[in-house]
Amino acid sequence: MATSPAAVVPPQQQQQQQKHPLTANDDRDKYITLSELSLHNKPDDLWISIHGKIYDVTAWSSFHPGGAFPLLNLAGQDVTDAFLAFHPPSASARLREFFTGYFLRDYSVSEVSKDYRRLVADFSKSGLFEQKGHGTMVSLSCIAMLFVMSVCGVVFCDGTLVHLLCGAGMGFLWIQSGWIGHDSGHYNVMSGRGYNRFTQILTGNCLAGISIAWWKWNHNAHHIACNSLDFDPDLQHIPLFVVSTKFFGSIVSQFYERTLSFDKVARFLVSYQHLTFYPVMCFARINLFTQSFVLLLSKRKVPNRGQEILGLLVFWIWYPFLVSFLPNWGERIMFVVASFVLTGIQHIQFCLNHFSSSVYFGPPKGNDWFEKQTAGTLNIACSPSMDWFHGGLQFQVEHHLFPRLPRCQLRKVSPFVKELCKKHKLPYNCASFWKANVLTIGTLRTAALQARDLANPVPKNLVWEAVNTHG
């Protein structure tokens, strides 16, 4: 039997419960409703439900490996599907520490969630989450080869064309390191946590100049609130880009905790966003460099801050030092531009997966996990021979539904996801790389043309708004 709620609930939260007392001396004193659970949705009073049990994760949120933001986004809700998506079965053992003694009275599971949970269980029993293949070692070998070739080409060769190719090689190196950093943020790509952490710092901070702490902070929020205009940081690119006219109202970013102002500068830049998209993507890496330092130098709690900063310093020592070996400023600029432009391919793909998909306004909900992830993502159709290039993000739908699944397994589970989407009449969005670019530019162009209407800053055509808010 469950223990008494009063024995495990902090005094402050007991006071809040008195505002909506439960019937005492009755079996009902161990149950609360969804509406009562929803009251516990603040940083100092954070409850969630998993499989109908209520957990108080207020204190744990500060230590949560995925950061506090995902917990805060889903606070006061049933989060079973999200929990299963992001945590291995072993994580369930830790839940006992946070059990309040309460159960959810009106707990229910939709047919979609039932089928989704069966898939998670089946994949787990089949060992798919543990079968990681040799992708990481192949990628690391490729990265090492590209690094040695680029360094040797710069230091020991005098040809301008060779230096240009070395810059391009550095760009491909950053793309491959980005895939490893992405994977290692979702699951252990190495045999143990220590080796996984070393690989993260090496490939992310040291070789690419991007903080893995920033990446996880940003990326976890994106996964939980996929394509929410005010909660997903991957859609919040004012003043350069907007994907919905909702941004014309200067919405508040819950992630950045500030207003995304749609001022005259933003209006001008957004008016031409479909033309500036590719040039900006060529140098989008500058934003990642900046965001990494902004987080590490902020007052936010950052795990292993010293390691993170040291890793970035390593990058900012070796990369400028390598560039300094080039014979003149013209070739130095050429080398840097080439490395940035090649990496822009990866930044473009990040946008292709979501910019043209369905968007919504408001916080994510725990009871439509499968529906939101499928609606907000777009797969890129490609042959198996190109999987290495796309790094697993060509199966964006599968990745969002099963973020712990190694990328080498995504193609294998794709038919099961398609079948489940078909069964429940949900979208399974997929397009060729070319078509995905067309869709993305079309979304940007539609919003750009609306932004040019200076006399009507916020569209009054409610039908147009209703259609285009959903991509």
Automatic annotation (TrEMBL):
It comes from the Eukaryota. This is Uncharacterized protein. It comes from Melastoma candidum.
